[in-house]
Write a structure and sequence with these properties.
The protein has one domain. Helices cover 26% and strands 23% of the residues. It is built from two helices and four strands; from the N terminus they run E-E-H-E-H-E. Strand 3, helix 2 and strand 4 form a beta-alpha-beta unit. Helix 1 packs parallel to helix 2. The longest helix is centred in the middle third of the chain and has 15 residues. The mean pLDDT is 85.
């Protein structure tokens, strides 16, 4: 008989999801990372994604990244913009950054 547990009581790592979604195709690519989701992590995932779909989407020269304006991907973050610039030059792509607006305080439910 094999003994099994339904929970991890002593995890050795924390896993954080990072996803890339193509709304026109209704397709999702999910990356699970054990590091903090940083500017480098985001671009690493985008590079992995591009490599995995390059043949399928070889005709695409321009795409839009919708970002949530978090500290990791804010357009004022030098590391994020620098890595994204290197990626787009290497892949000969045009990338447009489209940021969601910040959530105003009036949308936060404080009735608790």
């Amino acid at each position: 008989m094999t003994e099994a547990y339904d929970h991890d009581f002593k995890p050795t790592a924390t896993v954080t999801p990072f996803d890339i979604f193509a709304p026109d195709l209704n397709e999702l690519w999910l990356y699970l990372v054990t590091t903090k989701v940083s500017a480098n992590c985001i671009i690493d995932c985008v590079e992995r994604w591009r490599h995995s779909v390059k043949e399928r989407f070889s005709h695409i020269e321009r795409f839009v990244i919708n970002a949530d304006n978090s500290p990791e991907n804010h357009s004022r973050r030098t590391q994020f913009v620098s890595r994204l610039n290197q990626f787009t030059r290497r892949e000969q792509l045009t990338v447009e950054l489209a940021y969601y607006p910040p959530y105003p305080d009036e949308f936060v439910d404080r009735r608790g």
